[in-house]
């Protein structure tokens, strides 16, 4: 990065081959609000593209993979349809499209699901089950 800052990406693997992608500034790792911290270094595209490359790896190596993420709210920002969420939504639609994945959003909680259509077709899981699972994990309303 131009700023010289280091970011960490966590990939959480859940049941049914669903992966949660999270990133944060390494120096903020100890903070409870590390996902909401604003660096103001104007490099979000590079950071998010790194996450996209990681997602692409899982997409290519796990034919059952689906993805989930939440666009954390900035300090003082409402959690509905956050700036991060809108940016992430645009990026994943650009890089993944709708041929392989069915995209589901919960704008009220800035949550995003990319569910592999082949898994939905096989009834591996239902959209409602996955939404409920993430509501429980992240205590979404």
Order of helices and strands: EEHEHEEHH
Structural classification: alpha+beta
Q: Specify the helix fraction band.
A: 25-40%
Q: Per DSSP, what share of the residues sits in E-state strands of 2 or more residues?
A: 15-25%
The average pLDDT is 88
Q: Characterize the biggest β-sheet.
A: 5 strands, mixed
Widest sheet: strand ordering: 1-2-3-5-4
- The value of Rg in angstroms is 15 Å
Q: How many runs of DSSP E, i.e. beta strands? A: 5
Quaternary status: single chain
- Structure annotation, total helices: 4
The low-confidence runs, each spanning 5 or more residues with pLDDT under 50, are none
What gross morphology would you assign?
A: globular
Distance between the termini: 35 Å
Name a few traits of the molecule.
alpha+beta; 141 residues; five-stranded mixed β-sheet; globular
Tell me what you see in this structure:
The chain has helices at residues 44-61, 83-96, 117-121, 127-138; strands at residues 7-14, 18-25, 66-70, 101-106, 111-116. The chain contains 4 helices and 5 strands; from the N terminus they run ββαβαββαα. The N and C termini lie far apart (35 Å). The protein is α+β, with helices and mostly antiparallel strands and 141 residues long. β1 (7-14) and β2 (18-25) form a beta hairpin.
